[in-house]
Specification:
- This protein is mostly helical.
- α5 packs across α12, α5 packs antiparallel against α18 and α17 packs antiparallel against α18.
- The protein is globular and about 70 Å long.
- A hairpin with a 2-residue loop joins β1 and β2.
- It contains 18 helices and 2 strands.
- The longest helix is centred in the N-terminal third of the chain and has 44 residues.
- Strands 1-2 form a two-stranded antiparallel sheet.
- About 2% of the residues have low confidence.
- The protein has a domain of 287 residues.
Amino acid sequence: MTTPAHGISFATALRAWWAIGLNSFGGPAGQIAVMHRMLVEERHWIGEARFLHALNYCMLLPGPEAQQLATYVGWLLHRWPGGLVAGGLFVLPGAVLMLALAMIYASFGQIAWLAGLFWGLSAAVLTLVLEALSRIAKRALKGGVAWSIAGLAFLGIYFLGLPFPAIVAAAALTGAIGVRFAPEAFAGGGHGSAKDDRPAAIDAMFANGPPDHVRANAGRALTTAVLWVGLWLAPVAALYILRGADDVFTRIGLFFAKMAVVTFGGAYAVLAYVAQEAVEAQAWLSAEQMLHGLGLAETTPGPLILVLEFVGFLAAYYKAGGLDPLWAGTLGAALTIWVTFVPSFLWIFVGAPYVEELRRNRALAAALSAITAAVVGVVLNLALWFAQHSLFARQVKVGGYGLSFERPEWSTLDPWLAGLTAIALLAGFRFKLGTTKLLLGAALAGIALRTLVL
């Protein structure tokens, strides 16, 4: 492939995307920081303003914003092949590692030291969820309207059992309509703006106007949409026809395909809904296993939403039918990865040329701001859900007067895990211990306690 006007060869970009994929730890905030350092500060491939411009668009989309941002920049540099490589390599290292960890977990999860490792990770995961809640709240809750939306979202999902997609839709509608009547209260936030302090290589493409692949073209957008929707849903359609609606692989494909279009607000926001469906409705895995999966996803590079791969693996592993369980689990994991991440390429390749119009849309910005506020309430629900199901052995169903929720049975509290969780919270919030050290410390403490004390 010839070197484009910006002077960055495809091979050079390939090495950079591989390095980013291997170093994409720390959730979306850390991953975006890695890309900013490598692409804006060190290599000067993309300017600060254009980087934030792309991030603003990715914030509007369902799915992992950091992976979509990588896809966007790769697309800018080398058209759709660059986008495929950038987005694919952002996911691939973590997906391969998660598959290996899921196999080990399913095969040897009952070994004492390994059980202790996952038991200890539960304490760190609770801390990480609460840290995420704190970060999102500081960014999103800037006024009374935002606090009200967050509170209503929490009440709706925790006490009324409203589905996450309905909460997202209601928040978006509230923001889009509210900004017409109270623009100051509902004004969308975003990531601000910035001025480039030095020219970036990618700006060479725009010296004489936007290059062809960056220009909006309705015909090309339609063709691209048809192609990627077909690629996305073809495996699910084939499974439905060949194996029927009740087959576990069909249900995995349909469920996670639906998740791919409602995962606004990042992985933490959607995990409460996934846990509710996968644990309670589908009975694919236990709440404890869901916690373990999140702990594994925290330790691997790539989007945190890779925890869905763990869920898909266990769902197929335990309901393999006539297949070898490990082979069935691998197929379930691959199917989950496909239906979860293919839409990310669809959103970028179809929508990126229209980004400038989207940025100037005040109603859309307000809708995003309202969704982000609602996510705070959803993540609070997730934190309570994880705390209840990890610290307490039993839950009590509470219903009546339109309410439907679980409360913990206090006599079943695990005092050792509660103490370890308190130490993890102190280490994370007071002493600012990093994610890797926190997970490693909790895992080692869990192994020691479960094998030597308990």
